[in-house]
Fold each of these.
Amino acid sequence: MTDDQVAAAWDDPKLANVLYHDWEAATYDDKWHISYDERCIDYARDRFTHVAGGDGWPYDRALELGSGTGFFLLNLMQAGVARSGVLTDISSGMVEVAARNGRALGLDVTAEVADAESLPFADASFDLVVGHAVLHHIPDVERALREVLRVLQPGGRFVFAGEPTRHGDYVARRLSRLTWWTATRVTQWAPLRERWAKAPAALAESSRAAALEAVVDLHTFDPDRLAATCMRAGAIDVRTVTEELTASWFGWPVRTFEAAVKPGALGWGWAMFAYRGWMTLTALDERYLSRVVPDELFYNVCVTGVKA
Ligand SMILES: C[S@@+](CC[C@H](N)C(=O)[O-])C[C@H]1O[C@@H](n2cnc3c(N)ncnc32)[C@H](O)[C@@H]1O
């Protein structure tokens, strides 16, 4: 990614999304610790059932918007939520990796480039539409939701998970910035530099990516307003749930720290600490804090609804 490309994408969120996610595609699964085994199958299924419940499976034909490398739908299919699927994304780099992942898993899926605001599918061609961490990148969310309802069969369901809430995102961003600022300075200290500091070229690349991130992340959501947008688009039986409070206060600095230091500097012990810490705090959030803390303060919002 060059400075000129970043400048060209500055006023064009869709171009920025293509550029940023094409650039991220090859390393995306590693960066986000995405796998297609029990760990992520459970994670994807739990996100789905948390908001949409466990009834009505398996769906025959599912569509994913902004699939990235296929994390959500491929793992939902492995969990038995859908029999066949179509992975779509605006980034051709992501679509290529998603198609490869689907083939490697031997699932009944195809993958193609598609903009969520104008889907290249006939009316009523799916009985499930899903997405994970995609709505906040789409300029006109209500238009995309109208497209979702158009391509769903009557009675079909949509599930979008992993969208940032306004309050959750505010806290997470500040924690991440503080972590980045601290880590990139401390690792320049001579005794630490060789083992921990990222190469200058890699740091410059990360800064360009961070500049684009500010363009691709278009929205944060208030759960009630997101539900209202779904209903305006024509959905019924709309429901939202939020999740991750302390888990996001821990998870964002951890991921930012991983991105700020030399690749490979943090070993297996760190990976275990990060994973176990996140699991423990997620359990704390789910079991206790979700009963007493207002839902809009949590980091993630998930929404589901049905086509009448
Ligand atoms: C944060 S990534 C999430 C990827 C994947 N769903 C996951 O959870 O790992 C967001 C994805 O949405 C895609 N995207 C952004 N804008 C889009 C649009 N208008 N239509 C379709 N996909 C879009 C990006 O290219 C990117 O792959």
Amino acid sequence: MRYGILIAFVLALGYGCQPESQQNLGNDISYDTTAVVNEGQKIAKATFQTLSSNLKNAMKEGGVEYALQFCNVEAIPLTDSLSNHHNVSIRRASHKPRNPYNTADSLEAEAIKQYIDKLETGKELQPVTYADENRITFHAPITITNSLCLNCHGKVNEDISKENLATIQELYPNDQATGFSMGDLRGVWTVRFPTTHFDSTKIDQLKK
Ligand code: HEC
């Protein structure tokens, strides 16, 4: 199970692929796309592993009901502590958010739209990077590649039980994150680096 999810995630990230685009949104920051993709993938993967091992432990401990309560309290603090650790901003954003805090902003919404269009035409989803303001942004797709996810994000009454739906609605009165099927786009990872993150001296220091 554990490895299944990891492999699914690696596939979902298009791990090892070259990025499909480098856009520069109106300013002249130049950067090494490969370095940003490598670092973004590393950070998104580490965050996924932390979230998914915590989720699985919670499900083992108290089933879906308990895991819902657990994610409600812990998903964002866990992600934020990894942001602090890596000195970047990490988040999961969705066009159909459960937690309103994870609602896609306009740049994330654009990345999501492009991924959904690609999925429809059967194209492979790859990471995207771009520079805006004083930061460099990395996005990678989050797709539903494990049936485990459907317990809480699948179809109401088919995948999600009545009891669990009641818990979801109690915790998230404006929940939009149900009705997904295997292979659907659930959202995107966003890793935002300060432009100084890739200064050569810093990178040298990191290598030591
Ligand atoms: C036990 C139920 C449960 C399972 C299983 C589950 N999730 Fe979630 N998911 C949640 C909850 C609760 C949130 C909201 C967390 C918060 O408040 O920050 C969430 C949030 C998310 C978000 C952030 C965007 C949003 O809608 O707030 C993504 C992306 C996501 N889940 C993807 C997945 C994927 C992919 C899987 C399968 C690997 C999965 N989830 C499995 C309960 C679950």
